Amino acid sequence: MRTLPPSKSATLHDVARHAGVSPITASRALGNPSLVSPATIARVQQAVEATGYIPNLLAGGLKSKRSRMVAGIVPALNVSQFLPSVQTLTEALAEEGYQLLLGQTGYDRAREALVLNTMISRQPDGIVFAGLVQDEAVRERVRRTGIPTVEIWDLSHSPVDMLVGFSHPAVGEALAAFFRAKGWSRVGIATADDHRALQRTHAFAAAFGAPVPIAQVSAPSNLLLGRGALAELLRQAPDLRAVCCSSDQLAHGVMVEALARGLRVPQDLAICGFGNADFSAHLFPSLSTVAVDGADIGRRAAQMVLTRCRGEPVAQPVVDVGFRIVERESTAG
User: Fold this and answer.
1) Residues of the chain with pLDDT > 90: what percent?
2) Could you tell me whether strands 289-291 and 324-326 are parallel, antiparallel, or unpaired per DSSP bridges?
3) Which of 2, 30, 147, 329 would bridge 286 by S-S if both were Cys, CB 3.0 to 4.6 A apart?
């Protein structure tokens, strides 16, 4: 088969002509292969490769009122705690013929509204939003569209539509109890300034029952910011005994800074993170953290969207997946 000139976009008619079949047969081979023979499917696929044909999914979507696209919105693509959710969400949607289109808000409320409005204008079949939609006007607009929407990695009694997550205040309270049970009285918090991290921070400080120095950094957090956070905490409290961090990335930085100052972990300074990043178990010493099943969150969110796309009700529109504290060497003893 000859290939078409690069300047010309191949059409379904080109594919049909190259395969020696009618356009309707070519369409069935690509869109509903159960209606044609395997031999015909093979010929049409060969024609697709030869012509460089790309199906016009928009045209098909206009007929079916389905874009086969789900919008996924995260604060930042480099935040490792969201990656398992994005991966399983992508895989579960792909199994049903849907693609995930990602956008990021940069932890900016104004940008959050802009990204959501842009995604809505593209008429996705579903929206999965990492966190709770903060802007009430945007929340109301999403509700009015009727697009199946799942907020993830947070918890609320009044979600926009559906929700899969856990309580961040409950995490903060559990960590405060964990630190108290260790007998540590001189503790500090290294936290990013995003809404969820601050919820955990405020809950920890309220539940701990004693003044807690806090070093706050801009989200998303990283190793460098963690080093600076420990420097600030030690400036506020030179006799610091333990640090609770809002992410494993921040905790990694705190650990590096502690070791650079000659502090032993955990003998001189205990450190706990959040998110159970893939590296946390392999640090030396290994990092204690809070584990959340992000993969399960993504899988459940996909199931909710797909169920609604089939026109079926979701039996449990709000799911609390919970969390657990994983103790490793950085808080042992």
Assistant:
1) 74
2) antiparallel
3) 329
